[in-house]
Structure formats: structure tokens, C-alpha cells
Protein: Chemotaxis protein CheV
Organism: Pseudomonas benzenivorans
Amino acid sequence: MSGVMGDAFSLLLFRLHSGRLLGINLLKVNEVIECPPLTKLPNRHPHVRGIATLRGAALTVIDLARAIGEPGRSDSQDGCLILTELSRSRQGLHVQRVERIVQCSTGDVRPPPAGTGARAFITGVTQIDGAIVQILDVEKVLHELAPVTPAELDVQVLPDTERQLLAGRRVLVVDDSHVALQQTLVTLRKLDLDCQAVRSAAAAMDLLLTQQAAGQPIEVLVSDIEMPEMDGYSLVREIRRNPEIGQTYVLLHTSLDSTMNTEKARAVGANDVLTKFSTVDLSQAMLRAFQRLA
């Protein structure tokens, strides 16, 4: 797998008040603005600085430093907002300053160091001009503010014929985000699917080949797009090149919501693409997959 270079993507680099250097995928960024006046609501989450009104719409502003475990400066009027839209939500991340946009390859992004822990709030680490850049796990930040419980992941009630179509069918989920992985697994297992899970594209390739050799092939792969070392696009290319597993049905499941992602997913050979996170949409995507495989 070392021959896979990975896809190029753009990172927006920014710093927190502590000077910590972080990056966020530019596709997750709508715009960067000066911090506007905020309305501070009573009983708000301690990581929420307040509510801004932007073009007539309310926007939750998150103190990113506090959200990832650093001392915040909730009364400071300096800094700026990175406006993000992902996983069907829109919010502003308050940071000290934005520095620049850089190009890098997913092949140059490494997983967080061993022992970093579940509260690291980063999905990977890369090096830009000799400086270490930590890539922000925005999904984890949002989950900490508004955790999704298993009860909230109830799937739609399916007719018996459709449930029978899904029951016991083999699915592999790959996602480097623990939060996203668990949400997906809970939903799929409520559909009576036989699910396995891994945290990297390389591990997904290994398991696909192992299961194929054992005579129990994975029927559907549900893969994140943004992953260190090898992203979802590169994973699909590798699968399609391999005659043993090249016909595997692949659903790319991403927090990024844009026509460009859909077009690129189709171009590399993905069967379907879906924006996180909707239990109903994921259930319907599984039905489409197994109806096609029936």
C-alpha cells in the first residue's frame, strides 16, 4: 500500500490563543470573517461563546480553544471566525488568527501519535515548511457540544421484505473518526447487518482481501473520505485495481457536502456517495446497495 500517494487537498492553517497551529480541510470552510458582536444566552454550553446574526440567520459561535481543552478567552473581542458547514450543520469556530492556505497530500498525513488519547480532537498530523500541523477533528468538537445518543440513531421502520434483504449481509465500515464510526455502526446494526469496522484505508484493504480469501467476502464497504495516509478516493481506486475485490460495492460516507465530492466519488469508481449523518438516508443507501447486489 506504500505506493499510494494520496489525493491533494487544501488546508486552512490557523492558530489558537496559545499559539497552537492547526489546520482544517478547506472544503469544510465557507468563509473567514472578523468576530461580530455576540449575544450570550443564559445556560449556554461553556464552549459556546454566543450567537451571532449573519445575513439574517443565527449562527452558534464555538470557542474552539475551550472546546479542545485549552484555556479560552471568552470575553476577548479579538480573533476571527472560521465558518464551517459539515454533517448538515453550520457554525462558527472562534480562533486567534487565520494564517494561510496550503496544499498537501493525504499520503503525507499521519494518524495522531500513539497515546494521544480519545480527547485529542485531531484526525491526523502533517508537516508544512518544517512546522507540525495538527488537523482538527471538527466532527468530534461538534459531538462534544451536542452528543448523539444511540436512542437518537433510530432507523426508519422498514417493511419485512426489505429487512429480510438486509439481515445478515456483510458490511465493512472504515472511518478514522471514532464518533462517526460508532454512529454508523449503531445504525447499520439496527438494520440487522453483519458489520465489521476498521480505522484506516490500509486496514480496510487487508480485511477485504482476508474475507475474500476465506470465502466470506465483504459485500458493501462504507468508507469515509478524509483519512490519513490513504483517503477514501485512493481506497476506491485500489479496490477497483484489484481483481479479487474489484467488484465490491462502495458507499463513500462523508461530512463534506458538495457536488464536487459527488463527481469525484463517481469518477474514481464509487457506487454511491452520502453526506453524514442521517439514519434515514443511510438506511436507504443500504437498501439501494443490496437491491443492486440481489
User: Anything to note?
Assistant: The helical segments are 64-67, 138-145, 160-166, 178-190, 201-213, 232-241, 259-268, 279-293. The chain has eight helices and 15 strands.
